[in-house]
Amino acid sequence: MKKDVHSLALTRAGIDTYRQPVVYMREDCDLCRAEGFSALTKVGIVLGERSIVAALNVVTAADWLSREDAGLSEAAWQALNAQDGDLATFFHPEPAQATSSIRAKVYGQRLDAAACQAIVSDTIGHRLSDLDLAAFITACAGNRLDIDETIALTRAMKEAGQTLDWGQGPVLDKHCVGGLPGNRTTPIVVAIVAAAGFRIPKTSSRAITSPAGTADTVEVMTPVALDLAAMRRVVDLEGGCLVWGGKLDLSPADDLFVRIERPLDFDSDGQLVASVLSKKAAAGSSHVLIDMPVGPTAKIRSPEAARSLSQRLLAVGDALNLKLLIHHSDGSAPVGRGIGPALEARDLLAVLRRDKHAPLDLRERALDLAGALFDLIGDDAHRGRSKAVELLDNGAAERKFFAICDAQGGFSEPGAAAHRLPIVASSSGLVRAIDNRRIGKIAKLAGAPNRKLAGVLLMTKPGVRVDQGETLYEIHAETPGELAWAKDFAMAGPEPVILENQS
């Protein structure tokens, strides 16, 4: 291909920008100067039959990039299916249609169905900048999306991707709104429900702001990045699966919204509902149980907030023909002992194996949720929990879990971190509370969830008396540097394990 004034040779920058296409040009690049491109400009790129819109980053000094080349982030490289040296054409893209709707929302106007569709379409087409998306997320924060707007956004997000069809009969699902470290009930619930003969094709996310998501934890034990054909095969064989939803193109705009929500560290009730229910509807679910932990340091902090969110979930679920049940649970402290992928995996395996040292709170929560799902579909005249207990205690759930793992590619026992540091009580007292957010932050600074063996192992619970010098929790890390980083944070601020009667 002959190079023209609008062309540059492509090179792979090797930079992960988490699904955002980014192009890198030198500031003295002829094309960059001639076209008036500047940092954060949206730039169109055409290569053969493929085209994308990417955000421009201007490089002021770099030996790796010449004036004749354009570097591409991993997301841009894969979207164009580029090869080193390919000549691509660059152009100024038309402004995204959704920007006017976002601006209107910032100034307090409502979003109709067409506006929501435009925002979702331009989001997945990468025609909106991070600043545009941040403005949209912020404009919707709090309760600035009403019920009708939430329904419109949920439908637009669901319709933007593919929808799975599992045929006749109930398709069960379970989701937790999050905010509670260690609350890894989903794999246990899936095993119990599938052991009872019901379909529960569970798609899960990786962690957004927590030390582990269900997909992160299950991936310690079995592959989760299955495509749709492999997922269907597992469900056909075993009735259930535990799969990461990122490869299935279900509600694709959601992952891009989450990419912005993560550094902002907030979302709205409306966006939370749209995120959860768009994926449930797209996954082909018919009966969905929503676990909503409520506590002073959980995501949902008060009964009033729980009631408001529950009403919104039920209204949107009804509009999407989903049969929903909201389960309010205790969110005052972490669940189980482990916080982090491998540590949480060890907890849930202990429950499934009926180990006498298994965390009782994790077992009881999982049984409550599995029983509620049975009741939701009208099974056995509200004897759901006793049925769940039977399937767990007789080993059927354990056998089903390992059968699912085998079908997904095999099972591996969770490993253990090489570096550990006990944090001890500075005085004697009764454990009054454990700060979910602070203990979760320590686990993340230790490396979780990207470091699968990292996290926090709790050695006590609220209501337990501890003596001075007794271990409250252990920090687990895969490297000494990450252990030191987590230790510095743990030592610098308020103790996450809060004691009464300190002296």
TrEMBL record:
E.C. number(s) listed in UniProt: 2.4.2.4
Keywords: Glycosyltransferase, Transferase
Catalytic activity, reaction form: thymidine + phosphate = 2-deoxy-alpha-D-ribose 1-phosphate + thymine
Highest taxon of the lineage: Bacteria
TM stretches of this protein: none
GO CC terms in record: cytosol
NCBIfam families: ARCH_P_rylase (TIGR02645), PRK04350.1 (NF003338)
HAMAP family: Thymid_phosp_2
UniProt family annotation: Belongs to the thymidine/pyrimidine-nucleoside phosphorylase family. Type 2 subfamily.
Name of the protein in its database record: Putative thymidine phosphorylase
Organism: Novosphingobium pentaromativorans US6-1
Organism phylogeny: Bacteria, Pseudomonadati, Pseudomonadota, Alphaproteobacteria, Sphingomonadales
